[in-house]
Amino acid sequence: MSTRLANGGRLIDRSKVKNFTFNGKKMKGFEGDTLASALLGEGQTLVGRSFKYHRPRGIIASGAEEPNALVNMGEGGRFEPNQRVTTTELFDGLTAGSQNHWPSLEFDVGVVNNYVARWLPAGFYYKTFMFPRAGWKHVFEPIVRQSAGLGKAPDAETFDADRYEHYYHHTDILVIGGGVAGLAAALAAAKSGKKVMLIEQTNHWGGRAPVDGGTIDGKSPTEWVDAAVAELDAMDNVTLRTRTMGAGVYDHGYVTGYERVADHTPGDGRPRHRLWRIRAGKIVTATGAIERPLSFAGNDIPGVMLAGAVRDYIVNWGVSAGDRVVVVTNNDDAYRTALAVKAAGLDVPAIIDARPNGGGALADAAREAGIRVENGKAIGMVKGGKSVTGVTLCAQQGEGGTLEEIKCDAVAMSGGWSPVVHLWSHCGGKLNWDEANAMFRPDASRPPLGAKGEGFVIPAGSADGEFDLGAVLENAVKAGLAAAGEGKMAAPKGEAEAEAPMTPVWIMPQGAGPKKRMKMWLDYQNDVKVSDVQLAAREGYESVEHTKRYTTLGMATDQGKISNINGLAVLSDALGQPIPSTGTTTFRPPYTPISMGSIAGEARAEIFQPIRRTPMHEWHEEAGAYMEPVGHWRRPYCYPKQGESHEDAVYREVLNTRENLGLLDASTLGKLIVRGPDAGKFMDMMYTNMMSNLAVGKCRYGLMCSENGFLSDDGVVARIDEDTWLCHTTSGGADRIHGWMEEWLQTEWWDWKVYVANVTEQLAQVAVVGPNARKVLEKLNAGVEGGMDLSAEALPFMQWRDGKIGEFDARAYRISFSGELSYEIAVPASQGRAFWDALIEAGEEFGVMPYGTECLHIMRAEKGFIMIGDETDGTVIPQDLGLNWAISKKKEDFLGKRAQLRSHMTDPERWKLVGLETLDGSVLPDGAYAQGEGVNENGQKVVIGRVTSTYYSPTLKKGIAMGLIKHGPDRMGEVISFPTVDGTNTVIKARICDPVFYDKDGEKQNV
Amino acid sequence: MLVLECPYCGVMADESDLHGGGEAHLKRFGPGSSDDDFETYLFMRKNPKGVHFERWRHVSGCGKWFHAARNTMTLEVYGTYSAQTYEPPQDIIDAVKAKHPEWEGYK
Amino acid sequence: MRRYSAFAIAREGVRYHQGWERAWKSPTPKKKYDVVIVGAGGHGLATAFYLGKNFGITNVAIIEKGWLGGGNTGRNTTIIRSNYLQDPSAAIYEKARSLYETMSQDLNYNVMFSPRGVMMLAQTHHEVRGYQRTAHANALQGVKTEFISPQKVKELVPIMNINGPRYPVLGALWQERAGTARHDAVAWGYARACSDMGMDIIQKCEVTGVDQADGKVTGVQTTLGDIACDKMAIVVAGNSGHLAEMSGFRLPMESVALQALVSEPIKPCMDVVVMANTVHGYMSQSDKGEMVIGGGTDAFNNYTQRGSFHHIEETVRALVETFPMVSRLKMLRQWGGIVDVTGDRSPIISKTPLGNTFINAGWGTGGFKSIPGSGWAMAELVAKGEPGPLAAEFGMNRFTEGRFIDESVAAGVAH
């Protein structure tokens, strides 16, 4: 059983006790512990259950590569599933619970899968669960889903109690990884004076070197690391960050850094995570290496750990994996673990070395320390259930016949080391297979390419496939200098014991039969075994991607950090091809999972997106308006009074506006100024109608089409002076149309002398509408010297004037979108709120009420005016809407003209705009289609038109609608059928009519 | 996340500050053109695997449209230049040819 | 072909699964085939399958430059729905959806079609009207959908926040028989069935040229040698323009990256697929427990299968807003695929300027859901030389005529 040793632990402070709970049980650890070291210190070797077979799972690693030890952590708004205990810093009050079992970790019903594992090989679900057909959704899938998954889902109604933020950072050089290689590379790069950032995923510098030993420039690695950090810290051009992982490398030197600011101090007010969006000129990946397991039967039983991790726990945290630790290896490095175990006063019953000739100097040291070393041997199988009780010894070259049984309570295994090439590979860096070390390492000749076609990632140290301390440091300094592109620095001299060559061992023992291979785990979390990969190969899933997907190898939350190489070695062997021919699966960001919260950042809830506010926005809110989103604007939909429904409010607003006086905040309408000697020519290209001949002082309704011919926006254009036009666009269209105009001016007609300015937000605009419109404005003007003459004679319909209205600097347009007497009045945005207030106050005696967008919609529909987005949807041309009068026949060209000449655009079968009135006065449903005769070749019922706008008209006291109907204008008076979808199977009959329902002759607006 | 240098304001602009506008150097066909020419202008695209000339707008910056010569396989950028030209300038063509001697030209 | 069943598994379990045969053969190419299909993704394999099943044409080679199912078939978010607005789209996607219903049985391969329901949220009044329109259209198209209330949305998806401060949910378009399937299995199931019919699936074989005579295709040059054929079908999403260029024509199409991501697996918490178009994100939960998340496309031509991170940010932000609990999950993996987007964002199933050459391309973001319907329609086109009703409206000539199939009408601007 694992336990806390009496002494040692270079990262912990035994004077500071931290209390935590695991599955409700109270436990203690020390400051500096990870949750993993604390759990092991408390003897908790069983920490979870595997994904598929629900096998008992213990901690296997000490870092980011851990596949097994994931827990539900925290509570309420700070709950989080799948927290990796090896990368979780211990803090006081931490609560953790194991995952994927029922009813308890010790007794899990799901383990039944384990007993029938033989009948649940890779991909078994593709071969069964097919009958009955409904069985998958209703029976099998729910069972599969319930037994899969890992941690609990966070509670739906509990909002994240933490906050997150984004940082931007630009640097010449980014060094990822704060081990000795990263530190050496950063020192070498920083001496150039260039901006350097060094990030390290854990909370301490130095990486593995302080654990592995040796000397650097004659000092202990720890001393050297401390000095290096101090030196870097003193440099102005260097930024250092711990707890910050290089998560992903993206094109053109973009890197995401994931800083876990307050994971270990929850609730202290700081953001929990910080996502660094780094743009780096060069990136040095000093990301180290990850140890591989060995594939022997029972290698997943809790107590079997990576040799390097066993050593880490002893040296860093003063925790032993067990009292009797068998070491099994194919390389020299694991001997360091045996020596560390021995030095801690614990027993190493044997070192089982698969190499026929065993190890080098470290093996000699082990023998000198009195440890039994067995060369050419293997583990036949591990004994035990929820914990290790022993191993059988056998010959590596044989089939696994037991030579001897060795009692032990932990196994430290090492199958060699794989450089962490993830960040090198994210953006396309290529790999070479290194036969001697049985690993993929970066191919310096095929780096990821940056904006200038240059390599922009440089691997350093173990991440580049160097493992000897001296070679690591030399390589790292070279990488740092290369990143800086200049300078010289002698590499620190690293000295460690020379290591004998490793021997690749992919299956242990070599000749293991099918029964043993079914117990050799490759992917611990997803339960993928050697036999599964061999099955995939046998069935023709030969591509490494096929095998991955068929077996789920490497698809767990660890993304195969410890399993991928072993898996593809087994696959290559099964296919009888060398490993490089098999290749690797694609490395994708992030390196380890990062919180969605950090990706989303600050932008949530109220500040999810920017809000645009008109000068009158606050007035609307105070008036209790029900707002609707229109682009990033919020517009009042209606202003319900106490106890009034939205519907009732809208009808009241319509009637009041028609009978008295209504005010609409029209500030969101786009206002673009087009000016210059060629502005008229330009306007004639942008609009379907002729705009160049519009007289100064007058207004004209205009249409804009895309080059593809479809109607894209409309609005009233005013001719301001000889060189200047003002274009009103729809609220949603202002930025789009502005961009559209700029695009043509800059990229097609760049020699035309025209400027466009978007002045939408410079002006507040109010529609003053209704029979009393003139009265209220004249009241404001009463007694004002030089007040604008707003009489019908001085300011006729479809004209505009500048002047004073009351104390306001106004531009008044006599235009109407409601059919009533109407002035749209623009004032500087700074005067907008005061102008609105003045209108409300002055309008009281005239029955003033504000109205919202829905009232606007109804009034325009009553008048048969089209609305962009309702009558148009990107497939409608002006000709469909009976707007031929607004399409100039004189102009040679305008945007969309050529498109509208294509055969389908001139097809007489196109649906055309008409009015629709139901026979019973009811309101047609939104979006209803008119049904024709029969079905088409695909069996769909034939349609002959559709409703585009439909409302109850409070003015006419009946339903009114507009629609696009085949041959519509030729079928006036005909009755057509609109099937409903409300479940009643009814059909609504409607008569085709003129789309203008109200004041057909326009007498009301023109007074 | 691309970075392109805006040739107008000289800023190295992040892709998120830019708006992509598709293939560059299209010739506009208006009234009087054939159906085929018009279709080609509006819809037919080179969509090359390799060197590509395209339009961008520095929308969250100076607002100017510009052109970029870029590789769609490697995302290498050979250069950016004014949108107010009918064909790529010689220095851009030279930059592409330097990297891809076999390149057949932008047409 | 030995049938898959629970019995077969029981039998094999006893002998350590040593007796399973290959799911598909790995032949060397013959000199000539009746039909060469370029591209062994879902669409190519489905085309082959229905050529054999519906038309008895089995002298077919399916040529793949990488590994079968390795393009967008294996990179998408596995959503299957047919609640499209326009008639031609609804017809082919509904055909596909109905074929998915029986695919596991038809192929004797469990593709795990899970008709768990797809909802598309309406978060503006404009969207409400748009989806009500779709519901009306679908009713006449024979596609069963309905517009549901916010309360029903919450019942179906308890983890959703329907009262967000910015875009409260106003309703949703709900298709109960839409859902998801296991994407790889679709490719593998078709491959196994095609191989069983005697067709040759040739992987790691890249087409390097197209041979033609008298305006007709006569064969393809490949990295494994020349292969003659009477007819050729180009079904290579993400590379369509490239193949078209070899065949001597251009397409109204551009290739862009589309990204997706998954969270770490958690216990079941969401039983339906949710698409939120106002905020740009969609999400479902896989059978493994991962939240499968997709967003929009990049804005530039790209063949790297990598996208830009700011799109991931936008998508995740949208989902955190819609499902607050997502904030405390972790992103496990992100990736990209290359999709071909046409001028009207609808696909092309068409004859081409080169005789006896047919193209199926431009599915944009809708490729996976259409696989069986697309294969069905393409097989008919290849076999008969003329499109049947399902493909009739998807010809390339529509761009000349201005006869578009525009599904993005919801993007028609609001007032």
TrEMBL record, chain A:
SUPFAM superfamilies, sorted: Aminomethyltransferase beta-barrel domain (SSF101790), FAD/NAD(P)-binding domain (SSF51905), Folate-binding domain (SSF103025)
What InterPro entries is this protein classified in?
2Fe-2S-bd_N, FAD/NAD-bd_sf, FAD/NAD-binding_dom, GcvT/YgfZ/DmdA, GcvT/YgfZ_C, GcvT_C, GCVT_N, Sarcosine_oxidase_asu
Q: Where does the FAD/NAD(P)-binding domain lie?
A: 172-428
Q: Where is the SoxA A3 domain?
A: 519-601
Q: Which NCBIfam families match?
A: soxA
Question: Its family?
Answer: Belongs to the GcvT family.
Report what the protein is called. Sarcosine oxidase subunit alpha family protein
TrEMBL record, chain B:
Domain of life from the UniProt record:
Bacteria
Q: What is this protein called?
A: Sarcosine oxidase subunit delta
- Organism of this sequence: Aliiroseovarius salicola
From TrEMBL, chain C:
Which Pfam families does the entry link to? DAO
* KW Protease (keyword) present: no
The residues the entry assigns to the signal sequence are none
State the UniProt keywords alphabetically.
Cytoplasm, FAD, Flavoprotein, FMN, Nucleotide-binding, Oxidoreductase
Q: Tell me what reaction this enzyme catalyses.
A: sarcosine + O2 + H2O = formaldehyde + glycine + H2O2; sarcosine + (6S)-5,6,7,8-tetrahydrofolate + O2 = (6R)-5,10-methylene-5,6,7,8-tetrahydrofolate + glycine + H2O2
User: Which leading EC class covers this enzyme?
Assistant: oxidoreductase
User: Residue limits of the Rhodanese domain?
Assistant: 35-79
PROSITE patterns, from UniProt?
RHODANESE_3 (PS50206)
Query: Record's InterPro entries?
Result: FAD-dep_OxRdtase, FAD/NAD-bd_sf, Rhodanese-like_dom, SoxB
Q: Where in the cell is it found?
A: Cytoplasm
Q: What is its main location?
A: cytoplasm
Cofactor(s) this protein cannot do without: FAD; FMN
According to its UniProt record, the EC number is: 1.5.3.24
Membership in a protein family:
Belongs to the SoxB family.
Give the protein name, as stated in the record: Sarcosine oxidase subunit beta
Origin species? Aliiroseovarius salicola
